[in-house]
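Service request form, structural biology core

Requester: graduate student, group of Dr. S.
Request type: structure prediction, single chain
Budget code: on file
Notes: please return the result as structure tokens.

Sequence provided:
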Amino acid sequence: MTLSTSAAAIAANPSVAARGRGPRRSILFFAFAFAVIADPVSSVAYAIEAALRALHGDLALLLPTMSLVIGLVVVVTANYWQLVRRFPKGGGAAAAAGRAFGARWTFLPIGALVVDFVLTIGISIAAAASAVIALFPGLAPLRIPLALVLLVVVAGLTWFGHGGRLLFAVMTVAFVAISVAVLILGFTSPHTAGHAVATTDPGHSAMLAVVLAFPVAMALATGIEAPSTAIAQLGQLDDTHRRRFGRGTLALLLVIVGGLTLALTGLAVRLHIGIPGTDSTQIADIAHAAAGPGWLYGAFQLTSSLLLLAAASSSFQAGPGLLKALAGTAEQPGVLPPVLGRTNHHHTPYWSVVVYLAAAALVIVAAAGQEQELVLFYAVAVFVSFLVGLIAMARFAHREKKSALAWINALAAVAVVFTLAVNLLRGWPVLSLAATVLIAGGLYARWTRAGRPTGIEDVEARAEVA
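Core staff response, request fulfilled:
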């Protein structure tokens, strides 16, 4: 699938689609949806391997583990389905928390998103470098410099603003198409097979191993919140169509991410592809075993690395956009220094980009350019945002006497708490939680000193349209 020049014009000007019918609005939807889901789709590149490493290479338990991950992704997606219905102009968990518990609670999901954007950039760049190294092993000694060069390039592209949205959609479609080709070949006529054994420890408790491993792979859930905030960009559509776009994107996200994850996991088990070597990744080994060293393998590595760079670029736009919105305007004072809101003629808040560039570079260097070192931290901050959103939606349901919905949201919140707890028990991921709390506390303190300006609940929506 490719997107034409007319599609680019429609995606850049939602009012055209708003006046159009049928095909035009459909083109806008697919351009919007495939751009927004670039982040969660790219997570497939490292989440399956993260689960296998947590299972100590036990392939027999990999599919049950990833199935549990997808189950929790469904639960979280269902919550954002409700959020889109209630907040069709965007806002996500921050809007839900502010309206359910008061403006002060808005800062916890905001702090979580700030940390999540930094980690998304870091892990996506590191994973893109790993994909390149898997294709060209000679670059392995240059892993950190390669990652930092890619980081600077992606940060530099943000100078041109949101023009890359259509490119993100193309990258997502290309990766999905190549992945489907690899899967078909792998299940029907694979090039070779690996030598990983089905189980490494038949005497352990399978259930306990799965329960302890699946939270690590919940990095797959990052990006689920994007449709609930990105619909704010569709200002020329009415609330009904924004709801349809948001919910349609969530459904597409679930189908593509869930389908690719389970299919690639099944192929890994079928072809006995275990924990990869130092200079490769599991997803690269899966593609190599399925397609051999030819053009399809090269295309798979190329599209996966470009998709990961697109995911990083998306966070390089969303993260600084959030800081810009927090910096406020002359008409509406903010809580951060005005310098973070300064923009170029492409509306890019360049000093905010520099902040994220420095933070992501620090993260990449600290992890030695290894994305698997960052996975443990990745699924912590964003799950704080998930938790706040779930509790807020449970409160709304309780107020409206929708008992069944309140119980569903409450049980989902318990599942998210468990996921957080297991990840935090691993030790170092506590740093992600600490950073989230510190940023949230700092923003709250600045908001209080600024006289508690109104409208903070809508800061995520303003970040998308800024």
